[in-house]
Amino acid sequence: MTVDEALQADSLALSLYREIARSDWARLAAGVTQPLTEAEVVQLRGLGDRLDLTEVREVYLPLSRLLSLYASATKRLGADESAFLGEADSTTPFVLGVAGSVAVGKSTIARLLRELMSRWPGTPRVELVTTDGFLYPNAELERRGLMDRKGFPESYDRRALVEFLTAVKSGEPEVRAPFYSHMRYDIVPDAHTIVRRPDVVIVEGLNVLQPPPTPNDVAVSELFDFSVYVDADPAHIRDWYTQRFLALRAAAFSNPNSFFRVYAEISDEEAVRRAHYFWNEINLPNLLENVLPTKHRASLVLEKGVTHGVERVLLRKL
Q1: pLDDT for res 14
Q2: How many CA atoms, within 13 angstroms, populate the side-chain half-sphere of residue 125?
Q3: Which residue in 243, 266, 224 sits closest to 97, CA to CA?
Q4: CATH of the domain at 110
Q5: Beta carbons of 295 and 231 less than 8 angstroms apart
Q6: pLDDT, tens digit, for every residue of 244-287?
Q7: How does DSSP assign the chain, residue by residue?
Q8: Which sign does the torsion angle of CA 31, 37, 43, 45 carry?
Q9: Tens of pLDDT along 138-154?
Q10: Rounded distance, CA 260 to CA 109, Å?
Q11: What is the DSSP string of 117-165?
């Protein structure tokens, strides 16, 4: 899929959504108390993101309020179904998916929503799981010839992710997910993210809205109660990706234990060239072929502008 084809498909799917301007969206949380301090917001945002208290108040408080309505309604429906069947109420966690391109800010949004949702009266236990933990280990990717396609759908153990979420939704007392180290650029053996019957689980990743590989398979998104796609013009994302690469070169890449230590000493010009190479050869093709086509499977789309701020919200019609 080319950028032009993606834009054409996007226009055809708009009828599925209510289009809400930022100013109108912001009014939906009028009177809601801001639960986070400026220091907390600074700690939550990732490299290159421009998240501030205004963005939280005008974009993410209304989203948090909407999610609380969905979570409450889902819980009531579960209780009503149990009563109808004459069974004890066994309400399962509310599962939220967050999808979007590399460098679009979805990790920051997932962390922010975890903080906001954990402050609701009825959902104090909110867990965040990233699909990076379900990447195949580097040794396995090497064996399959997939190291240059890391982040593409085939580089993930999709079955393990489905089994993990199924166990969570089934109310297992403890479920473990593999742990991925961005410093080592690999799965860490014997390290896990442990989920113990939370009220809400947020699942963040590139490909969480992918359709199943065959009609007989279960899609990860079938286990979601609500999903958010973070969208932006690919040209803007390329610039954000480049800026983040430069920032990482001055920070994490300089760590002697970093997989990317080799890029710490290169010049600014060479760093920009390398970032553009990674974007054009890996991340942009993955976005156009795999990630962007899943946009309209989302319950809600956040459309970002050049400054990283959300300019419009698309809410899927019921």
Answers
A1: 74
A2: 8
A3: 224
A4: 3.40.50.300
A5: yes
A6: 888 877 765 666 666 677 777 778 888 899 999 999 999 999 99
A7: --HHHHHHHHHHHGGGEEEEEHHHHHGGGTT------HHHHHHH--TT----HHHIIIIIHHHHHHHHHHHHHHHHHHHHHHHHHT----PPPEEEEEEE-TTSSHHHHHHHHHHHHTTSTT---EEEEEGGGGBPPHHHHHHHT-GGGBTBGGGB-HHHHHHHHHHHHTT-S-EEEEEEETTTTEEEEEEEEEE-S-SEEEEE-TTTTPPPSSTTSPPGGGG-SEEEEEE--HHHHHHHHHHHHHHHHHTGGGSTT-TTGGGTTS-HHHHHHHHHHHIIIIIHHHIIIIIGGGGGGSSEEEEE-TTS-EEEEEEE--
A8: positive
A9: 999 999 999 999 999 99
A10: 25
A11: HTTSTT---EEEEEGGGGBPPHHHHHHHT-GGGBTBGGGB-HHHHHHHH
Backbone angles phi, psi at 214, to 5 degrees: -135, 160
In terms of residues, how long is the chain? 318
Q: Scan for tokens 């400054």, then name that residue.
A: 307
Strands 186-195 and 175-181, by their bridges, are antiparallel
Sequence-separated (6 or more) residues with CB below 8 Å from residue 134: 156, 157, 158, 160, 161, 164, 177, 178
Is the Cα dihedral 83, 88, 89, 95 positive or negative?
negative
- Count: domains in the chain: 1
186 lies in which domain range? 3-316
| Whether the Cβ atoms of residue 300 and residue 314 lie closer than 8 Å to each other | yes
Helix axes 234-250, 268-278, angle to 10 degrees: 130
